[in-house]
Amino acid sequence: MATAKIEAGGHISINTTIRKLNYYIGERLIKVYPIAVGKPSTPTPAGSYKVKNKIVNPGGVLGTRWIGLTIPGGNYGIHGNNNPSSIGQAVSLGCIRMHNHHIEELFPCVYIGTPVHIYVRSEQVTTPAFKHVSGINLTGGSNRKTYTVRPGDTLWKIAKSFNVNLNQLILTNNITDPNTIAVGQTIFIP
């Protein structure tokens, strides 16, 4: 099966609750993939990590590609699988499983050191959040304020608390749907 070419050099955000892997370039969502995650007794560890290694054709339950992560205390990664019906389920020992054709598409876009943020969120909020592990403010200037979204926040409440225009807040953060900000998401204050 031919794979579509996607842009390299981004970051990955994984929501273990809705079982989706999101690939970004900057703040722009490039692609969303369905995944399988750790079962309740061996959950996928939440946190901010990086890609530490990559293997082509690791075989067996790992499918056609392996992307190892810097998760302490185990050998965790994003990989293909030999059981496509497991995608969408919480069935692994903590790794993130993808369809082989999906990991083959993502694999060349991911480099050693690529940031990966894994989080747990209720299914009511489906927009991924990504907190930059590098700490780089992509909107310029080190004097720019940031705010991390908390439960119950809305863009309107954030705009009001910082005394800024709601539309300017939306434009500054390149937000396509102001009703779907996510807990843990970093908001840049204009």
UniProtKB/TrEMBL annotation:
Gene Ontology MF: a single term: peptidoglycan L,D-transpeptidase activity
Domain LysM intervals: 145-189
Residues forming coiled coils: none
Active site: H79 (proton donor/acceptor), C95 (nucleophile)
Gene Ontology cellular component list: extracellular region
Tree of life domain: Bacteria
Protein name, as recorded: L,D-transpeptidase YkuD
Organism (species): Sporotomaculum syntrophicum
